[in-house]
Amino acid sequence: MKDIVQDQLKSLSEGTTAVIPENEFEIKIARSLREQKPLVVKLGLDPTSPDIHIGHTVVLHKMRQFQEFGHQAVILIGDYTARIGDPTGRSETRKPLSETQILDNARTYQEQIFKILNPNQTRVVFNSSWLADLSFADILTLAAQTTVARMLERDDFAKRYAEGTAIGLHEFFYPLMQGYDSVALEADVELGGTDQTFNLLMGRSLQRFYGQEPQVALTMPILEGLDGVQKMSKSLGNYIGVTEEAREIFGKSMSIPDELMIRYFELVTPLNKEETADFERGLAAGTYHPRDLKMRLGMELVTLFYDREAAAWARQEFEKVFSKKGVPDDMPEFCLGDLELTARPEVISLLVAVGFAPSRGEARRLVEQGGVRINDVKVQAETTHVEVQSGDVLKVGKRKFCQLTVER
Amino acid sequence: MKDIVQDQLKSLSEGTTAVIPENEFEIKIARSLREQKPLVVKLGLDPTSPDIHIGHTVVLHKMRQFQEFGHQAVILIGDYTARIGDPTGRSETRKPLSETQILDNARTYQEQIFKILNPNQTRVVFNSSWLADLSFADILTLAAQTTVARMLERDDFAKRYAEGTAIGLHEFFYPLMQGYDSVALEADVELGGTDQTFNLLMGRSLQRFYGQEPQVALTMPILEGLDGVQKMSKSLGNYIGVTEEAREIFGKSMSIPDELMIRYFELVTPLNKEETADFERGLAAGTYHPRDLKMRLGMELVTLFYDREAAAWARQEFEKVFSKKGVPDDMPEFCLGDLELTARPEVISLLVAVGFAPSRGEARRLVEQGGVRINDVKVQAETTHVEVQSGDVLKVGKRKFCQLTVER
Q1: What ipTM was assigned to the predicted interfaces of this complex?
Q2: What share of chain B is helix, strand, coil (3-state, %, to 5)?
């Protein structure tokens, strides 16, 4: 029995940044086994944007591991604040979401997370079910469980307060709400990125106040994006979305820095510790070539989000384009006439019109860096207009292609 | 018409510390006169302790003046937080009050405030009527209207934060609730002591957010207590309670420092500006004796809380005791046997037993300062026990007397 507890403790702690506190985690696991009662493992998701990228899957993989040990995953959709939107009334972009939008987003979420989680051991809950019922008195009681100074210790608040950037008083409530969710769910464990540590600990305090055994906070590393430096994020553009095309997922995987490869294997693929350790040794010894392993990473990711067949096809396409300097089998076609461009368009306008650059500034940068080619001939930095003939292939960077026609 | 506006503006601004902002006050008065619509003038009272002292009456006198100009007084009983008690659950002394207790306190309040206010122009309201209905979403919206930095600008919060004294997050809600009360009442003016300035201005911000014309904040000076230094407060013991005996009110009035006399006339009696100005000039010129004016102050206060007859009697009693070194007509009697004391009691125990000292430490201090007399003979500092015979008069300070008997 003691061995089984230790096995579980070891596996579930692997790859985490912190388990707070470790001894309580061991006690919970032992009791769960003894009483044959699964642990309630909570993970909160924000339903304001339904697209998730592989940075989000780091915690999902950990959750999957809990499921494999028979525990109960609870995916908490934080719909309550999404319904409210931006309570200052100032933000145009954070309009309140309707019930339908939230349910739509939640459905999209589920499709994505069930690529990793086992649906039969997953409960999806919405925090509006309990937060909407709290009275002002309940909320004051909740607020009384923390102090202003403690809130201002949270890294981002501390920074903003020091800088003199406004912190709306309502923002102090988000950690409290997240903590109260743990009370409502009687969570045994809460998962989160390391940036969630403060909020996970708030759950512990509140559970203690409400007479519950505090949850264990289990934090996972934040995944670096394709640039290998900053955290993966949609707004930085350095991400692999889980709903992207197979070819994109594969291609983007090939673009990560070599040093990041093992970390990606560990954090966002279902490969076990032994396999990744073998890769690490092989790389160091030179028995594995980085390019081959990166191909394996790409295959694993595409298989995870599609299937083996799609992975094989994506790899073929990649090899055709990059190894054989070819062009992909299928690529979008654009008619200059439809884009309201002449047969001698301005390069900048062309790049923006076909969607290869989000802005004229960005398009200019691409040309200046020599990243734009027509029929595999580089467009020079000083070029303003180009002659186009039907059938010409426009290429930007390594993986963006399209075929141009002048008139339909 | 313009003159009437100016008259009202001048009278109502008299004695205030600040009118924020003055130009809006003038606009409101002018419109009220033009449209024959009384201003809604709000004053909040805390129902946790039902006893009020004359320090509290400073704002009530100002309210009375508004009533005399035909405006509508709204006394807001802050019952909502009293129902909650101390939300940290730590304080034994701030237990939640029951509905019955709150109504009892409110009734006691009304008896006291209607000694100054005109009941026919007074509406008494309880803020639980609207605060209890707010949802979490409403509260987040409310919280979003202010920032953490702005809250920390409030004097007491700034001080506590700088000192490292804990500020419970719920405390930030008290100004917001007070401000929201103004929204619920659509208040035109809110009265308060200068220590309420921050909260009154919060009302202005919130009214603006909810699309209302902001109230004018009208602040009154804080009355110094009998010591002439610290603010009048029950816990400092330097107060005159409005329900105290006539003799006590009169006697305490006689004990204030001469320099404070005019201020008391101005702030806590219904005398008008001309009369108090006359007193002030008379004192300076020596045509009024301070002792006579202080007697007048005592008479005014007793008349306010009782009637002319009680005032005349209190004055007679005072003169008998102090001017003629006599003892009052009626004084409490204590039997040493009943107090479980012998005929030769310890002085300290005796003072505590008859209620002339709240603690043994305080009793010791009184003896050491030479403030204790038996049959007008000072009890020396080194005395530990005294011989008592039935009929002896124990006197402490200037106004505390009792007659002792040894056995019934």
Answers
A1: 0.71
A2: 50, 15, 35
- Structure tokens belonging to residue B55: 């320090």
Do A344 and A387 form a contact (C-beta atoms < 8 A)? yes
Q: Which residues pair with B20 in a beta bridge?
A: B217
A120-146, pLDDT tens digit by residue?
Answer: 999 999 999 999 999 888 898 899 888
The first and second tokens of residue A295, run together, are 């191909």
Is the distance from CB of B47 to CB of B106 less than 8 angstroms? yes
B143: which chain A residues are within 8 Å (Cβ-Cβ)?
A: 87, 168-170, 172-173
Using CB atoms, which residue from B132, B134, B169 is nearest to A151? B169
Residue B129: both structure tokens together: 């009527």
Residue in chain B closest to A91 (alpha carbons) equals B144
User: What's the N-to-C CA distance of chain A in angstroms?
Assistant: 73
- Average confidence (pLDDT) over A28-57: 90
The whole-angstrom distance between B136's CA and the closest CA on chain A is 6
Query: Mean pLDDT over all residues of chain B?
Result: 88
Q: CA of B209: how far to CAs of B144, B145, B204, in Å?
A: 11, 8, 9
Whole-angstrom distance, CA of residue B328 vs CA of residue B109: 31
Residue B137 to residue A89, Cβ atoms within 8 A: no
Could you tell me the end-to-end alpha-carbon distance of chain B, in angstroms, rounded to an integer?
A: 73
Which of B131, B144, B152 is facing A168, going by the closest CB pair?
B144
Taking only residues 2 to 41 of chain B, the set having a beta carbon closer than 8 angstroms to any beta carbon of chain A reads: none
Where would I find the beta strands (DSSP E) of A168-222?
189-193, 216-220
The answer to whether the beta carbons of residues A135 and B83 sit under 8 Å apart is no
Q: Which residue of chain A comes nearest to B83, CA vs CA?
A: A137
Q: How far is CA B313 from CA B39, B249, B309, in A?
A: 40, 12, 6
Q: Which one of A91, A136, A161 makes the best mutation probe of the B interface by having the most chain B beta carbons within 10 Å?
A: A136
Give the whole-angstrom CA distance, residue B381 versus residue B368.
5
Q: Is B211 touching A (CB cutoff 8 A)?
A: no
* Residue B29 in tokens: 């008065």
Q: Rounded to whole angstroms, what are the CA distances from A98 to A47, A82, A124, A171?
A: 11, 9, 19, 21
- A81: chain B residues, CB-CB within 8 Å: 140
Predicted TM-score (pTM) of this structure: 0.74
Which residues of chain A neighbour B173 with C-beta distances below 8 Å?
140, 143
Could you report the per-residue pLDDT of A162-181, keeping only the tens digit for each? 988 888 888 898 899 999 99
